């Protein structure tokens, strides 16, 4: 599967991300999701697909608490890094940027 990147203005990336994530929760066979390094804004949906094995939303501008689902809890902090406004139990911190 090829990795694609979206490089556009923040309005376009916000709209694209909102449309993209609105349909993710209904994909029950989702097993690979890499949305890293795309400047996305918004929050992470409550993904709970048991087959999801690869997940990375690092290096965006995502905000709010990461939903506490069995699926999202199995991924480590590297899947969420460099989203300064993500928080909650799943990321186990108030900011998800590594210490320098």
Task: Please describe the structure with a list of short key phrases separated by commas or semicolons.
19% helix; 2 helices; 5 strands; PRK1-6/SRF4-like; single chain; alpha/beta; 3-stranded parallel beta sheet; two-stranded parallel ribbon; 16% strand; 100 residues; LRR_dom_sf; disordered N terminus; globular
Provide a descriptive summary of the structure in words.
The protein has 100 residues and is α/β, with parallel strands linked by helices. It contains 2 helices and 5 strands; from the N terminus they run αββββαβ. It has helices spanning 10-24, 70-73, and strands at 32-34, 41-42, 54-56, 61-65, 85-87. The strands form 2 sheets. Strands 2-4-5 form a 3-stranded parallel beta sheet. A two-stranded parallel sheet has the order 1-3. The longest helix has 15 residues, at 10-24. The chain is globular and about 30 Å long. The protein starts with 9 loop residues before the first helix and ends in a 13-residue tail after the last strand.
């Amino acid at each position: 599967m090829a990795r694609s990147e979206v490089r556009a203005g923040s309005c376009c990336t916000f709209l694209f991300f909102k449309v993209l994530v609105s349909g993710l929760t209904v994909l029950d066979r989702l097993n690979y999701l890499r949305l890293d390094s795309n400047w996305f804004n918004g929050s992470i949906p409550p993904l709970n697909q048991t087959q999801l094995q690869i997940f990375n939303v690092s290096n965006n501008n995502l905000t709010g608490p990461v939903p506490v689902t069995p699926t999202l809890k199995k991924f480590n902090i590297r899947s969420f890094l460099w989203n300064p406004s993500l928080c909650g139990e799943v990321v186990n911190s108030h900011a998800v940027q590594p210490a320098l």
